[in-house]
Amino acid sequence: MDYNRGMISEERLKILTESAKYDVSCSSSGSARKNAGGMGNGYIAGCCHSFTPDGRCVSLLKILMSNDCVYDCKYCPNRVSADVPRASATPDEIAELTVDFYKRNYIEGLFLSSAVAETPNRTMENLLLTVKKLREGGFHGYIHLKGIPHADASLVREAASYADRMSYNVELPSESSLKLLAPQKSKESLLTPMRNLAAEAKRFREEKRKGAFLPAGQTTQMIVGASPETDGQILRLSQSLYRVAGLKRVYYSSYVPVVHDSLLPDRPVGQLREHRLYQADWLLRFYGFSAEEIAPADADLPLEYDPKCAWALRNLHLFPVEINRAPLEVLLRVPGIGARSAYKITEARRFARLTFEHLKKMRVVLKRARHFVTCDGKFYGAKSETAVRGLLAATENRNAVQLSLFSDEENALKALTGEL
Amino acid sequence: MIYFTDGSRNGFLTAFVRAFRDEDAYITSRQKQLALGQESAFVEADDALAARAEARLSAIDRRCLSELDLLLRSGADNREQIAFRYFKKIAQDRRPVRNLFSDDAVLAASECMRRVTFEIHRLHGFIRFMESASGALYAPFSPDNDVCDLLLPHFRARLPHFAFVLHDVSRKKAAIYDGKNSFVAPLDRAEVLLSADEQAWQALWKRYYASVNIPSRERLKQMRGYMPVRYWKFLPEKNAPEL
User: Where are the domains of chain B?
Assistant: First the structure.
């Protein structure tokens, strides 16, 4: 693999990385791309190569081709009116960086995005040129490509044919907020290309063509807390993105005030809210819940309990369930029992009746679950509903403080006073 | 009685047969302090006996011998004993028991195997190659479990045109791929002459690592949970002066 030698400078790498880091998507899963005679392949389960002090994983080389944007989205550090250092990289530089990082096993592949430099088409062409260069140079590692809104559909389709995953960020949870905060983007400029790509992938499958079009599918991201939408609304949007648009993941990014604007809140959103949304998102994707069950449209998720706990407390008439008899989908609805524990329980009970001691030894977390199950007919939870609520809320608070999920003073104070 | 083995697979299987009816058996390949009056014996590997045991076990459970391979790679001091109790359970029950999680022996074996396979997965991410002047890639590391050769298929598939060395520095052995074949060899110390650009690429990587972090959201405990400190020694981004 020979590219024009010329390593990107540390300074430009720094600018282009810092501009890209608020995009939270990091996963490298879902693609089983084969190494066809060059370097690299897909790792279906995904692979984390490092972890940064903020607790996030480094899986892909996450970088912008340019942070020199003509758009003026209010929340974005790279908006045209922001006074920040600007930089850009050439397709050769990005390709060389990717290959040399990949070879040393620093990364699983490339996450390539860009500010809208000059025009959407010009920007998309640059992204396309980069991924094409990489693939034609024999690179078969993971590539996640960001779609540029308003770019030509044919450019997008061609770029997507080289990528494993593609994403358009819906940015904000409603059209009105988008209009207010990202005036140059419209709902259609984001949703139409998503639909086109999904249709192309479907055609690909139906014609049984070799390989796969976007094997790892599409994802999206929205900022939470920069606009007034409730968690209930957000989850309904996510649900339709999963069910109708067929997305693989929706990422939530709690709002961090990197720029000041009268239209934006000054305070960051507590990361606890983001955490709760992710928990609810998992319930949508893996636990058979619907958004309607998790939260009413006009309400936020409760902060004191995780969403499954909150659901169970609203539906106490369904509990307790017997560990030895409850079907898998019922076990998955027990607070504290995850997919792994549920699997262990259903396997182990084929051999023997399970007791509370068995569950403990199997490392099933019983702190929450014990209030909602019986083991071989015996109940080990608290006697009254009030006691259950008290115990669950208390444990949650301790955890939350330990993990320092409260990034702002207001929430930290609430946690101390017990209001939260 | 304590049964000492040479640590080999056949050594274990021989001891397994000899100790099978001994209620108080403890099999180990490590040095172990004997309690007063405790009997012990060194079990010489008996290949024929081991082969018969293998055949019988695999007739009951076809997958269990590959599990034995994983268990014996564990870095746990009591790995032979964990394997012994698990295989005794298989032989006594005369059926596969891998999901009988209510049994202590099964649970211990399952946890032990999970630690080995999980470390392999982790190392797929945490291995760091440096480029030598000849273009070959060299990665020193110090895993908890004896897994260096199990990393070969993954990296061979990714980097078929590069020779590379995966050097387990604590066990003084290496899994080596020469561009055509791969093999395991003892390797005490390696002198590696780095390529001209290697330092610069490492510097770029460190710069990247420092830039992609969001300092206002520090969660060190989470980072250490996902990436335990014992792996840091060989990660350029974690053992360099802060940028």
Answer: 2-119, 127-186, 198-234
